[in-house]
């Protein structure tokens, strides 16, 4: 389509249309066909996505090569705010786990991180989950219990802990730490919770 045709089709002024078309060409979302009248055609969506993904991978390599050496992770207490940021932290912790994962989380949030837990199980890691029925995950040790709806507790490799609440983007806060005393405290808390669940189940049986 020519710029004139796009303007006519969309109802946008020709000056704005030409500016936006030039921007699409510059960003790799459209091709410019040089004829008597300049024409524009969209790049196929799969080609556009592949181009962007490849560019991001190349940029990732450059960033890694040029980044200063990372200092040892701070063993203090780090506050993670916002639902998306917390979910990203959970996914990263699970992906970086080497031996075992203990997690207490709602079924709703579980659906978001399920692929990462499945991958950990496929790598032979021990995965222990406290959640609500009817959640199931083959290869994981699951304990069913009534729990705080928004609460999250995650322990990875007995060296990292994340705890807090996931409510919505504006009301979600978690504490992340590698401090061993805090990790041990939450490990003991989860062990006691699991023992209580087991005792309750025996009474029900």
Automatic annotation (TrEMBL):
Transcription regulator TrmB N-terminal domain span: 1-45
Domain Transcription regulator TrmB C-terminal as annotated: residue spans: 79-186
Signal peptide start and end residues: none
Top-level taxon of origin: Bacteria
SUPFAM superfamilies, sorted: Phospholipase D/nuclease
InterPro entries: TrmB-like, Tscrpt_reg_TrmB_C, Tscrpt_reg_TrmB_N, WH-like_DNA-bd_sf
Name this polypeptide is given: Transcriptional regulator TrmB
Organism, scientific name: Orenia metallireducens
């Amino acid at each position: 389509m020519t710029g004139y045709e796009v303007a006519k089709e969309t109802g946008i002024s020709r000056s704005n249309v030409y500016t936006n078309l030039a921007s699409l060409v510059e960003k790799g979302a459209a091709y410019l066909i040089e004829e008597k009248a300049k024409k524009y055609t969209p790049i196929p969506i799969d080609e556009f996505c592949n181009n962007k993904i490849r560019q991001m991978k190349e940029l990732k390599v450059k960033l890694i090569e040029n980044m200063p050496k990372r200092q040892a992770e701070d063993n203090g207490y780090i506050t993670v705010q916002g639902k998306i940021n917390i979910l990203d932290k959970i996914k990263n912790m699970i992906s970086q786990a080497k031996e075992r994962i203990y997690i207490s989380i709602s079924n709703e949030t579980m659906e978001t991180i399920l692929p990462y837990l499945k991958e950990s199980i496929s790598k032979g890691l021990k995965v222990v989950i406290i959640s609500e029925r009817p959640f199931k995950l083959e290869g994981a040790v699951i304990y069913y219990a009534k729990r705080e709806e928004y609460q999250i507790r995650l322990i990875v490799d007995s060296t990292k802990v994340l705890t807090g609440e996931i409510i919505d983007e504006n009301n979600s806060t978690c504490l992340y730490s590698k401090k061993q005393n805090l990790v041990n405290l939450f490990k003991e808390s989860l062990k006691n919770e699991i023992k209580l669940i087991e005792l309750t189940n025996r009474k029900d049986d």
